[in-house]
Amino acid sequence: LLGSLQATRALMVAAILLGLVAVFVAVTGMKCMKCMEDDQVKKMRMAVFGGVIFIIAGLAALVATSWYGNRVARAFYDPFTPVNTRFEFGSALFIGWAAASLAMLGGAFLCCSCPRRETSYPPSRGYPKNAPSTGKDYV
């Protein structure tokens, strides 16, 4: 096989494996899971880390799909390619682009759930509570 075809296959396999790792990392960081429930900051950081891995997996899938799509387009418009051996964009390319877009979008949503930093405002103080009256204050 051509080197570019082997590279696109390797990128797609890497994207699939990174996607699986991202699922496990992001599930660990979800609020509904019992794992790491004692430290909410670490739990949220795990969710953000899973989102970053999703974005990387989506980029790998996008590069592989676009690279192969470019190869198909160049071969289609090459005048020296016989008409009966020309490829066209198939459904697999569109599914690859959609999957890469959804993986990056999901990763971005997970990254938006990062823990809030402490604000520079002073902490709000409640009103002082009055002691219950015993009735002897007016005597």
Automatic annotation (TrEMBL):
Residues 119-139 are annotated as: Disordered. GO terms for molecular function: structural molecule activity. InterPro entries: Claudin (IPR006187), Claudin1 (IPR003548), PMP22/EMP/MP20/Claudin (IPR004031). GO terms for cellular component: bicellular tight junction; plasma membrane. It is a multi-pass membrane protein. Keywords: Cell junction, Cell membrane, Membrane, Tight junction, Transmembrane, Transmembrane helix. It is found in: Cell junction, Tight junction; Cell membrane. The chain crosses the membrane at residues 6-27, 47-69, 89-112. Belongs to the claudin family. This is CLD1 protein. It comes from Mesembrinibis cayennensis. The gene is Cldn1.
